[in-house]
Design brief:
Elements lengths: L10 H6 L16 H19 L1 H31 L14 H9 L14 H12 L8 E5 L7 H7 L2 E6 L2 H10 L6 E5 L12 E6 L8 H14 E12 L5 H6 L7 H10 L3 E6 L7 E7 L4
Parallel strand pairs: 1-2, 1-4, 2-3, 4-5
Antiparallel strand pairs: 5-7, 6-7
Helix pairs in contact: 2-3, 8-10
The protein binds S-adenosylmethionine (SAM).
């Protein structure tokens, strides 16, 4: 299983040196290859000194196997992405798992409540105007997946009669509970990251920003299956996710999952949801928003 690169800068760090990425804190970039080679050599020397020659040779072989396996995985995932191979046994299903997300977001520094990813107030207004206002009806029941520190919840709760916030991170939910202690129209649900534990036809709209960019294709497919089930007829699901074009390196640096625009279209078609629009407007290169609509009876 791929473990997430945990040393994301903390919210406090990004507050002073703001990331140029509106949605995701800039992960620690990998060291340049020169220093990587120097590090590997240093480890081998230490292995020789501490464990002896045989140990150092085996340790070196193990490093080589790991590096070949990583490259092989990247190539396999490229094919899976190109051909929309989404299976529990696929390589992409081993990355960006629920466990990875729980570990990352339960220990994240939420002191800026996710606003460290807000480009500017104008940008946030544009997201509300173009994506929330047309699809999240006022006075309805809205499901928000992955509220984090409540960056969008604060807006949605003011226009909805009921908001259900569903997250895999207990920490994120407890931050929202504390932040919105005075709001009586929010329900908090801890999920298993692979679907929506709500009754059929129980919500008018679904909103999820900066969440499916970090969820693998298999879990994403399970969510889209449930969109169709929990949405009332004609309701919209608006989700922010990766597209097919960002490079492997770029995606790794931004902790972007292996989901593509085509996969989302396949999942929607599989479950009878109409893809109303798939667009990169107001988003960083490599990300998209897809708006899906549940069929009318
Ligand atoms: C980058 S934060 C974004 C928070 C918020 N949506 C925002 O835009 O500020 C990602 C959030 O998604 C949640 N998350 C990650 N994987 C999830 C999953 N499979 N199901 C539900 N929530 C998930 C995390 O716990 C975290 O709260």
């Amino acid at each position: 299983m791929m473990t997430p690169k945990m040393p994301f800068p903390t919210a406090a760090a990004t507050a002073t040196g703001r990331s140029d990425d509106p949605e995701v804190p800039r992960p620690e970039h990998g060291p340049p290859s020169g220093s990587f080679a120097a590090k590997a050599l240093g480890r081998l020397r230490a292995a020789r000194r501490l464990g002896g020659l045989r140990y150092a040779l085996l340790y070196g072989t193990r490093m080589l196997v790991d590096s070949v396996r990583d490259r092989l995985d990247d190539t396999l995932v490229q094919i899976e992405r190109r051909r929309s191979v989404v299976e529990p046994w696929s390589i992409a299903a081993r990355r960006y798992t629920v466990a990875d997300n729980v570990a990352l977001w339960n220990t994240y520094d939420w002191s800026l409540r996710g606003e460290e990813w807000t480009h500017s107030e104008d940008w946030k207004r544009a997201i509300v105007e173009h994506y929330i206002a047309p699809h999240v009806p006022t006075g309805g029941t809205v499901l928000e997946i992955g509220p984090g520190g409540g960056r969008w919840t604060d807006i949605i709760r003011q226009r909805s009669s009921q908001v259900v916030v569903l997250d895999v991170s207990e920490r994120a939910l407890s931050i929202c509970r504390e932040r919105f202690a005075d709001a009586s129209n929010i329900r908090y649900v801890l999920g298993d990251g692979n679907g929506i534990p709500l009754p059929d036809a129980s919500v008018d709209a679904i909103w999820s920003f900066d969440v499916f960019v970090h969820i693998n294709p298999v879990n994403t497919r399970a969510y889209v299956r449930d969109f169709q089930r929990v949405l009332r007829p004609g309701g919209y699901a608006v989700i922010h996710h990766p597209d097919a074009h960002a490079s492997v390196t770029e995606r790794k640096q931004r902790w972007r999952s292996d989901v593509t625009d085509n996969m989302i279209q396949h999942f929607a078609a599989e479950h009878g949801l109409e893809v109303v629009v798939q667009t990169a407007r107001h988003l960083r290169t490599g990300d998209l928003i897809t708006v899906m609509r549940a069929p009318m009876p």
